[in-house]
Write a structure and sequence with these properties.
about 35% strand; F420H2_quin_Rdtase; Nitroreductase/quinone reductase family protein; Split_barrel_FMN-bd
Length: about 140
C-alpha cells in the first residue's frame, strides 16, 4: 500500500492534483500529519468532499477494523497541512460527532461510490474528519 500511496502522491503533485487511472474523477487531497511516535511528517492521499468551506475525509482504512495511522497522528496533533490541486494550506482537524458525523458520513458515501460498505466491514464507526483552514 505504501508504494501505491507514494505513486499517487507523486502523480498528484506532478499534475496539480489531477489523477488518472482508477482514481480519475475522484476528489482527492494530500493530508500531511505529524507522526505521533516519530514526530516526522507523514503524507497520505485521501478522497474528500467539500462541506461549505471545510473539507471532509473518511478514516476508513479501506474497511479495516483499525483506524488508519494518519487518523491516530491527527488525534495526537490536530494541526495538519492540506494540499488540494496546487494549493497548500494549514488546517486544524477535528473528528465530527453525533448527528454531524452521521450527516457527513452520508454526504461522503453519496459522493464516493464503493465506500458505503466500509463501515460494516470495519465493524466500527468510521471517523469523519473535518479539515478547517487556519487563518
Amino acid at each position: 500500500m505504501r508504494a501505491f500511496n507514494e505513486s499517487v502522491i507523486e502523480e498528484f503533485r506532478a499534475n496539480g492534483g489531477v489523477l488518472g487511472g482508477r482514481l480519475a474523477g475522484t476528489s482527492m487531497l494530500l493530508l500531511t500529519t505529524v507522526g505521533a511516535r516519530s514526530g516526522l511528517p507523514r503524507t497520505s492521499p485521501l478522497a474528500c468532499v467539500a462541506d461549505g468551506g471545510d473539507l471532509v475525509v473518511f478514516a476508513s482504512n479501506l474497511g479495516s477494523p483499525r483506524d488508519p495511522e494518519w487518523f491516530r497522528n491527527l488525534v495526537a496533533c490536530p494541526d495538519v497541512t492540506v494540499e488540494v490541486g496546487t494549493e497548500r494550506f494549514a488546517a486544524r482537524a477535528t473528528a465530527a460527532e453525533g448527528a454531524e458525523r452521521e450527516r457527513l458520513y452520508d454526504l461522503f458515501v453519496s459522493r464516493n461510490p464503493g465506500t458505503e460498505g466500509h463501515q460494516a466491514k470495519a465493524g466500527r464507526p468510521i471517523p469523519m474528519v473535518v479539515l478547517r483552514r487556519i487563518g
